[in-house]
Amino acid sequence: MDAPTTPAAHPEGLDAAPSGKRSAGAPDYIKIENFSFHYGANQALKEISLDIPERQVTAFIGPSGCGKTTLLRNLNRMNDLIEGVRHEGDIKINGRSVFDPALEVISLRKRIGMVFQKSNPFPKTIYENVIYSLRVAGQSDRKKLDATVERTLRAAALWEEVKDRLKESALSLSGGQMQRLCIARAIANQPEVLLMDEPCAALDPIATAKIEELIIALKRDFTIVIVTHNMQQAGRVSDLTGFFYLGQLVEFGDTAQIFRQPRERQTEDYISGRFG
Amino acid sequence: METTNKTPRRAKRGVGEPFIWVTAVGLSLGMLMVVGLLALILVNGTAVFWPDRVEQVNIRAESPFELRGKKVFAGRLVKKQDRILQDIEAREAAERAGVWPQEFQYFVGNKDAYGLSFFYIDGAAIAAREQPRDIAQLERLEYGDAFGYFVGLRLKDGATIPAGDPNFLPQLRALNREVNERREELSRIEKGQIGRINHQLQRLALRQKEAGNDAAALAPIEAERQELQTRYETLAKTAGELRARQSENQLVYRLPAGDERTLPLGQLIDFRFPNQLGFFERTSVFLHGIWKFLSEEPREANTEGGVFPAIFGTFVMTLLMSIAVTPFGILAAIYLREYAKQGVFVRSVRIAVNNLAGVPSIVFGVFGLGFFVYFVGGTIDSLFYSASLPTPTFGTGGILWASLTLALMTVPVVIVATEEALSSISRGMREASLACGASKWQTMQRIVLPAAVPGILTGLILAMARGAGEVAPLMLVGVVKLAPNLPLDMTFPFFHLERKFMHLGFHIYDLGFQSPDSEAAKPMVFATTALLIGLVIVLNLGAILLRERLRRKYALGAF
């Protein structure tokens, strides 16, 4: 394994990204308003309201079944796949509702990358995995694809490890490499938002450290929302933290404040490990 | 404490050791049956081609047994068995003596002389058995094999070469090769060239019918017909000459009982001295026999010659069936699993599909006859082949209808396997694709289907195995005992989907149960069965190899 790359070492690859969003981020880039969500008769989220700022890392923490993943999957409407769900309230990204009937869900998902808890590379080559989102968008210019692969894999801190085996199956990679490949795949089409659903849950500490460095580096270009069970991880990588409990947002605020001086008793109990 | 002491015994019963044995016994019994069946078929199926020694048997003068009034014959010993004694006294006598009377079955050949080719004789009636070195086995075009001693050659110029002459054998071999070459040429002329002219004449007759009374249109047709007729007559004359030359030389041989017989050399395919062959020569005869069985056309009501048309028919039909069943089955399964709204209706469709797999195959045959042959085929005939009616073109059984009927029969297998394969593709993979901005169809096409291909192929393998071995429905929709032409040949349009065809499964049925001489057909039944099993194995192996290659290509992760 390579020594962990420092955060400063790789984001230069992303400098090629459109620099229009270099300006100071909007504080309410993603705006969740009174959002409730039901799986059939089961209410998973109760009247959630919070603002996620642009180009910062926002972490959702909370015990299992508290609704944090459900909220995350609503941001790119992955919950559409489940039958019998309904929602109230609204989620706006950059001022536009994700539930707007005029908005095509495919174009929404093109703007939002997602990384899953279990790394799920496709049974294709590393190269094809990275450019999958470009392929389905109809991009076939070889030069552009090559450039994207290198830029994206550098951004995901994977380039040095796989540059000589791009034509090999992605399934030959190690667990940590696979997850970084999934991150590369999620950012290949230059989305605005990156959703991460417990990206390190199945990884060892070394791989986890690499992913965390990556997250910190990536926030220069993306608005990142991360769901995690790992309190230390939330503390290390996030700027803002929301604590969820039983479908409700108990507390939301600056990460440092949440971890040092939580306003709510439940938050304090959870963070200090007294329940979970 | 007491309870803890008792636990081990109870636990042991709970583990269920006896049930593990029962499962093992079940597997062993199954394996035993399969291996036994395969071994039986293989041994009997290949033993046919092994050239056995030929015995000359002298029958005791006082015994009632005789063959055509003679007390001596030659033949190949087929089997030796205990006699079935109906008479109680005879049975008691045999038990007292401690020796059970035997009976021998001989293949005596010479069907033209004896009127039978298998002969049972009591062991007690046999005076002597010997293996004469110079007895010959003649493979003939008609009446099967003959056993006898060469007397000489009667040539066309009236000269004779006696068997003792040193020139006799070389001359016989040369003439034998000559007639075999001439026979091939004859078949080329008659089947190929004359067949093509007949085909063209038929087409002309149709055009004539269409032209009706239009004299201007009829004139060129008549001219063409005249020309074809002349060509036909020339060819027929050549064929007649060749045919006449086939019987100008004659072979004279003597049966063991002494009567001489003559055989036109055109009737002789091959000859050998079975008692002079060494091990390697016998192996070569054995391999040659297998090759002829695989490559030649059947003769003598299918009991002689090879089974090539049946192999070819089975292969082509299975291939056509796979081509038809694959897209239908896969598309149906994709809709059922991925797009249809899961509910009562879809569930009942699924149950119906599964039940379809259990419908007796003859029912599919009847449906195929009614729907494909009479309805679809009849409609095609009335639309496109009306000129040749009332002779049906597609409105009768043919390889296309047989393949489609079998495709219908095996479509549930493919649907079920494809559904299984689709449902085994993890949700994570689909979500990853959707999250990348792919549409549902793109996800299907790029991620789900490639990963499901090995599973889908498994279904296709099962379907092929079932289809290739099926006979009952085929008897209704196009299989025949003897098809004059292969479904694929050199006459336009090369691929004749409307033709009737031969099939190994039906061939087995026909040989075993419809043959005039079931004893003669028995070895062929075994050989054909072994071949059918072999063909199914080859087809399956091909599909399995393909699946393994694809599986390596789309290696599925463990998640």
Please give the number of β-strands of chain A.
Answer: 10
Structural class of chain A: alpha/beta
Shape of chain A: globular
Structural class of chain B: alpha+beta
Which radius of gyration of chain A do the C-alpha atoms yield?
18 Å
CATH topology of one domain in chain B: MetI-like fold
Give the SSE string of chain A: EEEHEEHEHHHHHEHEHEEHH
DSSP strand content of chain B: 5-15%
Largest interface, chains and sizes: A-B, 28 and 22 residues
CATH superfamily of one domain in chain B: MetI-like
Outline the biggest β-sheet of chain A: 6 strands, mixed
**Second CATH tier, the architecture of one domain in chain A:** 3-Layer(aba) Sandwich
Distance between the termini of chain A: 34 Å
**CATH topology annotation of one domain in chain A:** Rossmann fold
Return residue spans of chain A where pLDDT drops below 50 for at least 5 consecutive residues. 1-23
Q: What would a concise description of this structure say?
A:
Chain A is α/β, with parallel strands linked by helices. Chain A has helices spanning 68-75, 105-111, 126-130, 132-136, 142-155, 159-162, 175-187, 205-218, 231-237, 255-260, 265-271; strands at 30-39, 42-52, 57-61, 85-93, 96-97, 112-115, 193-197, 223-227, 240-245, 248-254. In chain A, the strands form 2 sheets. Chain A has a 6-stranded mixed beta sheet, sandwiched between helices.
